[in-house]
Specification:
The structure is a homodimer of 401-residue chains. Chain A has 14 helices and 14 strands. In chain A, the strands form three sheets. An eight-stranded mixed beta sheet of chain A has the order 2-9-8-7-6-3-4-5, with helices on both faces. In chain A, 56% of the residues are buried. Chain A is an alpha/beta fold and 401 residues long. Chain A has two domains: 142 residues, Aspartate Aminotransferase, domain 1, CATH 3.90.1150; 245 residues, Type I PLP-dependent aspartate aminotransferase-like (Major domain) (Aspartate Aminotransferase, domain 2, 3-Layer(aba) Sandwich).
Chain lengths: 401, 401
């Protein structure tokens, strides 16, 4: 191979992507039923509404929608996003207290760029979002895994880890996390905010799934709760996204953070991509201003809720005590553990290979851990297959097992 | 200010943004005629054509245009961009040899992320693009300034700097550079490619302005020339952009690079923003496929060419021998030097303050140097004011001087 002597930066040595590549290779086979994705169902997109919003943006504000824009974000969108959060119970976030990011992935990148030095400790949940692990490691983070259970991150253990490692920050997905699908309890949410203040430690709340609840609304986000814990807003970063509820293709996310951090994130973003597409931002702003989100959210909640129920019912009836999981109350994922009952395999990666042979794909859980992986875990997405295909796919899983 | 103890990363200490903030503060006054921008004229955008392309994308391919996409870029756009470059004489760039970036600013960021370690030497032109300086410094680059003249970077001097510093790479804007407006001669282009091969050193060609020529086409890009210099493609990175010719708001740029580098840039991009807005990419692809670019380019070339001539004529007649510049043959900028004739000021920053008081803004040249700034320089954009306003603005400059 030519150029094997290209002078790559040392930070690239921190990242091992073969696990990811292996996962994606699994998905190429024709006829496969995929529970492997981490994305919403394209069939759920409000294409008509988005097209109308785009046309309105180009008719009413073509100069702004097609020109360079402020790195902080397009002002009308910042206002709409502040209002969107206010409707969800987040008080006192002014438009200038949030910046628009190119998807919430960019918020993670800006957090890494502004905060992480080589060797910096960062606490994440075990398991957590794969692209978060890689993103922070590219900046040289030394990740520490905090254990979770059915109520989310274990806060006593978290406090011990804070004391021991004095991390730059703690990264959590408290609501319907990827991959765990878990839900941090209200009591623990308050404890997390109290720990942030007590140890003067930043907490990053990544919240792309909080709107995707199926029945009762989840506990308030850490951001919404922060007014109950004095001083906690000074230590809280909140990342939101339209990707899971409206469209990932717009690449519109946002970040709320203390003013000093926000200013530095803007500086870094200026040299990362100058600004998020104003065309996409103006389209999103028009969509939100048009008042379409409540109906859109009601629709996706109903469809994903039904698919989640179908998948959980089928898993219980078809795989029985060979598999263990908590029924998700929202999000896109069932996070399950192979029990090894009746001599069945307990290894997620082995089971994934067996499943592919039977024509169904999912993602084994090990790569979602930054340390000490639970090899018996797996992540199943119920978002993109309809209910019949879900039942068929779970049937194939049973055959594979 | 609360949180002054937030644990920011050391890399932030590498960047001084006050110069930039000062520049932008100059622009707030009402009634000002601005030659300060680095952007195209919003009035030139083909709003109708872009709206039609967006509608076509959402009608014909809604699932793709609104869903997550490949980090490398949306396949139909990669094909269109390869074809667009082929029309400009770039042979042998297959779609898979380029990736789509979120504006060409992101290409710079990915080059920094994949190649620069703290302390890495990088050679740039003196002067060069301000956001390049900051972007590379955020990754810890130690920048070396290579002198330019009317024919672009001085290649003998460049060779000495390569031998002395053994840089990770050389960054050039060979065609109508920002801020210099300069044009690297054909002979020097070949020499640069030969130096890349001789010293096994990557050369980054940033080319957002190459399509904006006013009369004769400029010499071929380094990428187009590379087939004449055996082995040079292995050491060449080329960044393109639709921002200056179609719309910055789409944030669509691209990067051609050796396969190994491209693979690592994709890995880094995955954790930077996952992918560039598929909505913007599908819109751009439809626009290019519709064959609108030749007419759009002809229109902007004509308008900017007339504005450039108006500005240069007015500068010569109004400021006389107090100012010296090479008439630009393309791009957006006149790069000028105050001569100090007849006891007039020779300091660009002083002149900028005097000009603001007379109601006209431009950018003094010093911040565009990574070292040894020429304080007598200034950058004047002729892109966004019409010809009457340009004459009026240059009249105010004469009063200010």
């Amino acid at each position: 191979m030519p150029n094997s002597n290209l002078p790559f930066a040392q930070r690239l040595d921190n990242v091992e992507t073969s696990a990811i590549r292996e996962l994606f290779k699994l998905l190429g086979k024709p006829g496969i039923i995929s529970f492997a994705g981490g994305f919403p169902d394209s069939a759920m997109f409000d294409v008509t509404g988005i097209a109308a919003a785009a046309n309105k943006a180009l008719t009413e504000e073509p100069g702004s929608a097609l020109q360079y824009g402020a790195t902080e974000g397009y002002e009308p969108l910042r206002k709409q996003l502040a209002a969107f959060m206010a409707q969800k119970g987040v008080q006192n976030v002014a438009p200038e207290q949030l910046i628009v990011t190119t998807g919430s992935q960019q918020a993670l990148d800006l957090i890494g760029k502004t905060l992480i030095d080589p060797g910096s400790k960062v606490i994440v949940e075990g398991p957590t979002f794969l692209a978060t692990i890689q993103c922070f490691r590219l900046y040289g983070a030394d990740l520490v895994s905090a254990p979770i259970d059915a109520d989310g991150v274990q806060v006593d253990e978290l406090e011990e880890l804070i004391k021991q490692h004095k991390p730059k920050f703690i990264y959590l997905i408290p609501t319907f996390g990827n991959p765990s699908g878990g839900l941090l309890s209200l009591e623990r949410r308050k404890r997390v905010l109290e720990l942030a203040v007590k140890y003067q430690t930043l907490v990053v709340e990544d919240d792309p799934y909080g709107d995707l609840y199926f029945n009762a609304a989840p506990p308030p986000s850490l951001l919404a709760l922060s007014h109950e814990v004095p001083g906690s807003r000074d230590w809280l970063v909140h990342c939101g996204s339209l990707s899971k509820v409206l469209s990932p293709g717009l690449r519109v996310g946002w970040m709320v953070a203390p003013a000093e951090l926000l200013a530095r994130a803007v500086m870094c973003k200026q040299f990362s991509d100058a600004h998020t597409s104003t065309f996409a931002q103006a389209t999103a702003a028009q969509y939100l201003a048009g008042g379409h989100m409540p109906a859109t959210l009601a629709r996706v909640r109903k469809v994903y809720g039904a698919r989640a129920k179908t998948m959980c019912d089928a898993l219980r009836s078809e795989l029985g005590d060979a598999i263990d999981f908590v029924t998700p109350q929202g999000g896109l994922f069932v996070w399950a553990r192979l029990t090894g009952a009746n001599g069945k395999t307990k290894d997620g990666a082995t089971f994934a290979r067996q499943a592919i042979e039977k024509g169904v794909a999912f993602v084994p859980g090990a790569p979602f851990y930054c340390a000490n992986p639970d090899l018996s875990t797996l992540r199943l997405s119920f978002a993109t297959a309809d209910e019949d295909r879900i039942r068929e796919g779970v049937g194939r899983l049973a055959q594979a097992l």
